[in-house]
Amino acid sequence: MKVAVVTGASRGIGRACAIRLAKDGYTTVVNYSRSIEQAEAVLDIIKSNGGDGMIYRADVTNLDEVKTMFRDIDKAYGTIDVLVNNAGIVKDEYLLALSKDSLDKCFELNVKGYFYCAQAAALKMFRKKSGVIINMSSVSGTFALAGQSVYSATKGAVNSFTRVLAKELAVKGIRVNAVAPGFIATEMVDALPPEKVTEYLATIPMKRFGTADEVANVVSFLASDACSYMTGQILTMDGGLSL
Ligand code: NAP
To answer: Exactly one of 32, 114, 151, 200 is catalytic; which is it?
Structure first.
C-alpha cells in the first residue's frame, strides 16, 4: 500500500490532485479544514473510481492538529509516501492598503503550514528512507504581479524551502519538488473581479486559464518513479504567462 496526503483537498487544485493520485493507486487522505461536505464528495468520487482513502479535518496552520493528523494517518496505514502541500490562500492587496491580518494569514497558511506538514511527513518518511513531498507554489513566486506582494513573498518562500529541503532530505531517499501554476480556474480565481480576469487573460500567451486537472497531471508525474532522479525543482505551468 502507498499513501498520499493532500492538504486542502476539498476543492480546487487539491481536490483534483487527490482524485488523480487515488487513480494512480495511492490510498489518499483528503485533508480539509472547514468544508466537510465537499471533502466527503471528493472521497465518494475516489471510491466510485475504485480507489480508497479517508477524509481528515485538520487546520494545517495549527501545529498540534498537524502532528495529530500525521500520527493518525500513520496509525491507520503504517506509511506515508507522498505529501502534497497544497492548502493555500491568496490576498491581493496593494502595499499601502495591506492589512496585518492578510499578512499574517498568508504566512501562517502558505509558509508555516507547509513547514508543519513537511516536517511531520518527513519524520514518517525517514523510517522507510523513501518519500515524495510536492509543494504547491505559484508562478507568483518568481513573476511580479502588482498587488500580490504578500502572496508572491509566501510563494517565493515555498520555492526556497523546496530547494533546501531537497538538499537536506535527498540522503534520506525523500524527493522534494514544487509546481508553480499560473492562473488556474478554481474558486480562488473565480473570486477575481471581472476586469482583472480580462486583464490577466490578455497577458497569457495560451489565452486561457489552466485547469486543476492539468496541475494534477504534473503532481502525478512528480510523485511517480518517472522522475526518480529529480529533486529541488520548481516546475512552472502557466500557459506561457511568465515568458
Ligand atoms: P481553493 O480553491 O481556494 O481551495 C483551497 C483549499 O485549501 C480548500 O480545500 C480549503 O479547504 C483548504 N484550506 C484552506 N485553509 C486551510 C487550512 N487552514 N487547513 C487545511 N486546509 C485549508 O484554492 P486553489 O485555487 O485550489 O489553490 C490551491 C493551492 O494552489 C494554493 O496553495 C494556491 O496558492 C495554489 N495556486 C493556485 C492558483 C490558482 O490560480 N487557483 C495558481 C497558482 C497556485 P476548507 O474550505 O475545508 O478550508
So the answer is: 151
Ligand 1 cavity residues, CB under 6 Å:
7-14, 31-35, 59-61, 86-88, 90, 109, 136, 138, 181, 183-184, 186-189
Centre of ligand 1 from the C-alpha of residue 171, in Å: 31
Ligand 1 centre to CA of 81 (Å) is 21
pLDDT digits (tens, 9 = 90+) for 68-125: 999 999 999 999 999 999 999 999 899 999 999 999 999 999 999 999 999 999 999 9
Find the mean pLDDT for residues 129-140.
Answer: 98
User: To test the ligand 1 pocket, which listed residue (7, 30, 33, 37) has its Cβ within 8 A of the most ligand atoms?
Assistant: 33
Instruction: Give the Å distance between the CA of 1 and the centre of ligand 1.
Output: 27
Q: Mark whether 32 is an active-site residue.
A: no
pLDDT higher than threshold 90 for residue 21: yes
Length of the chain: 243
Residue pointed to by grid coordinates 506561457: 240
